[in-house]
Amino acid sequence: MAEEVILLDFWPSLFGMRARIALREKGVEFEWREEDLSNKSFQLLKMNPLHNQIPVLIHNGKPVCESLIMVQYINETWGRDSTESRLLPSDPYERACARFWADYVDKKSVGRRVWLSTGEAQEAAKKDIECLKVFEGELGDKACFGGERFGCVDVSLIPFYSWFYALETFANFGMVEECPKLVAWAKRCMQRESVAKSLPDQYKLYEFLLELKKKLQAQ
Questions:
Q1: Which segments of the chain are extended strands (E)?
Q2: Coil, helix or strand for 58?
Q3: Of 42, 78, 144, 168, which has the fewest beta carbons less than 10 angstroms from its beta carbon?
Q4: Distance from C-alpha of 35 to C-alpha of 12, rounded to nearest angstrom
Q5: pTM
Q6: Where exactly are the structural domains of the chain?
């Protein structure tokens, strides 16, 4: 019997991008279903009744919610014994470190206040972007956050690359000048098919955020 894998998602979702990347890294075929967040489907409300949020991974009728949990579930469910596609290290300490940094990414709302705010509030919000320099320091001269192998932390952070142009435009923040190693890392990640297929165009996302900001300010 063939496996049924469905991802309930919305194209600009950073969290949905994580699930898309992880599934593609593992070579899992899945059905991508885009949700209208202003008119959420019955399936979404049923599969995530607590939060009613995307993304939701549905594997053979069973839902998995929260993007980092999804990434770990995908890692443990498909190709677990394959060293090449492993998203978390086999060593317990290294795995704990990867989970720590992935959780750190999750807790930092990188740039959200920047594009939502204006004037002095936006200037204050620019401090949110400073966490990118923390990631820059953790990356150092490594190819990926886990060393040479693309893994869980990379999957967690790379979706923010699709927001780089928006952050630079809204906050007048030079990514290349401020975080050159992070930008170089992001470009390396974009050479992976799993990432390139999962991240939207930066300009398309900027236009989406611009329109969303106008709607929110008009309310």
A1: 5-9, 31-34, 56-59, 62-65
A2: strand
A3: 42
A4: 11
A5: 0.92
A6: 5-77, 92-218
Structure token pair of residue 26: 């593992």
pLDDT tens by residue, 5-34:
999 999 999 999 999 999 999 999 999 999
What is the CATH code of the structural domain delimited by 5-77? Answer: 3.40.30.10
- What CATH number should be reported for the domain whose range is 92-218? 1.20.1050.10
Note whether 166 and 213 are within 8 A (CB).
no
Copy the structure tokens of residue 128. Answer: 């949110």
- Which DSSP string corresponds to 26-49? TT---EEEE--TTS--HHHHHHST
How far is the C-alpha of 138 from the C-alpha of 116, rounded, in Å? 28
Task: Give the CA angle between residues 116, 121, 127 to the nearest 5°.
Answer: 90
